[in-house]
Amino acid sequence: MMEVMDPVTAPVAPALVQARSSAFSQRQPAKPPTAPGRQAGGVGIWPAAGALSAFAGLRVSCVSRVSRSGRRLRAQRQALKAVSLDEGVEVAAAKVDALKSLISKVLEVKSMPQQLEPFLRVLQASGYDILDKDEWRKIGGDLHPFLLPVATKGSFDDDLEVLALLIRAPNGKQLRPDEWQVVTQQPRKTKVVKLMADDISRYIVKRAEEATFRKEKQDMPIIEAT
């Protein structure tokens, strides 16, 4: 009796068919088992589960970052509110007026930076001497031309430290008052300018948090000012 062969596999030897099938199975990644009632084609159950897991991880990460950002913002608002209401540390009115005069008349800036007076109180509580009228002329050295000197620490000698506001961007563009950065320089020693805070508000919060964390005797004036 003659055996009828499959027209698809007839021209190929059985051993070769088996070899090709084996090689093909080695090249293909193993597929996960298909759940009953679910077709094997398309997106399987395992890739979907992996996508859901990755999405859940991303969501938790985003929520965590938003939570940290929210806590930081609340802390800043509380610190700024405390500073604006506290009158424990006072700066001489003449020194405040001298700085405002430099901003409005010399720099010709119409609006003052927010939290300027609390900023001066924090500086004074931190051991800085707020500059009086025309006292900035005594600084000497190579003070950076983009700096508005606000206060000094130490005697007017080679170790003099100047705390100032950086009022221009590196390319010379004038910054808005609320964008002025808080920096320090020792102009009689170096031309290097050190960044203390990105703006006045952040400097206030930074000093308040440092003083509250340590709660040492020398930090009490800062806590009172904030």
What do you see in this structure?
With 226 residues, the protein is an alpha+beta fold. Helix content is 44%, strand content 11%. The protein has 6 helices and 5 strands. It has helices at 14-27, 45-85, 93-106, 116-125, 200-214, 220-225; strands spanning 129-130, 147-153, 161-166, 181-185, 193-197. Strands 1-2-3-4-5 form a 5-stranded antiparallel β-sheet. It is globular, with a radius of gyration of 35 Å. Residues 1-17, 19-25, 37-46 and 82-87 have low confidence and may be disordered.
Please give a handful of descriptors for the protein shown.
disordered N terminus, alpha+beta, 6 helices, 5-stranded antiparallel sheet, 226 residues, globular
Helix content: 40-55%
Strand ordering within the main sheet:
1-2-3-4-5
Total strands:
5
Sheet having the most strands:
5 strands, antiparallel
Strand percentage, roughly?
5-15%
Poorly predicted segments: 1-17, 19-25, 37-46, 82-87
Which class of secondary structure composition applies to the elements?
Answer: alpha+beta
- How many distinct helices? 6
- The helix-strand sequence is HHHHEEEEEHH
Mean pLDDT level:
74
N- and C-termini, Cα separation = 105 Å
Shape: globular
Q: Rg to the nearest angstrom?
A: 35 Å
